[in-house]
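Next comes this protein:
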Amino acid sequence: MTTATTRHSDRRVSPVFLGIVAVMAVTGWATWTGFAEQPGIAVFLFVTAAWIVSLCLHEYAHARTALHSGDISIGAKGYLTLNPLKYTHALLSIVLPVLFVIMGGIGLPGGAVWIERSRIQGRWKHSLISAAGPLTNVLFAVVCTAPFWLDALDGVPADFRFALAFLALLQVTAALLNFLPVPGLDGYGVLEPWLSYKIRQQVEPLAPFGLLLVIAILWIPAVNSVFFDVIDTLLRGLGIDEISTYCGQNLFRFWTETDQFCGVGS
């Protein structure tokens, strides 16, 4: 088994990740109970910590799948520790996505871990490695939306419900963007093994700019409108309405004026 060559220390969960999980748990409890004097700050910390946790799990999914597919170098690179500081580019993988959440409320895909593809044989394995990350976001979205589509919201405080709705929005946008067949994103990584060598060679120079291209296109009002219409449709299918996501983002952005329509803190 490929995992046999991985040292135990290479798989030990990082204290940094555990610290982020602790922040998520404590602020989630504060949001649920109303313990926080400023509920917006608690929601901000809860959603941000949960978003970072999901980013770490996204990268871990890529790494773990690659390990089982034949890349035994993954463990030595620290990718199995869930430490966000160990990933290929901390700015692209963690900092930039978090900034986009704060600025625009969109789940921006991060940079992937560095995988030695030459060690891996088989097209399906390569495709699965690329798909593993965004599938983690899909799973995270399902967990966040479960109380909504299971109609299990009785007794769930409004602040916590709004926070979950906004967190689900981030996960759905991240999954959708990641699955776009654009060079540099995971969606293209799923398709790449099945393309001809000639096409791969022609597209390869575009990979470093793929994410920037997507961001630029999303700035076009018409495209942005269509994109979020699709997101809203997906969320409604999961039982979340626009009011919940709007109020979640409004509460998350505690430094702005609170919309009293949301009944935040009630």
User: Anything to note?
Assistant: The mean pLDDT is 86.
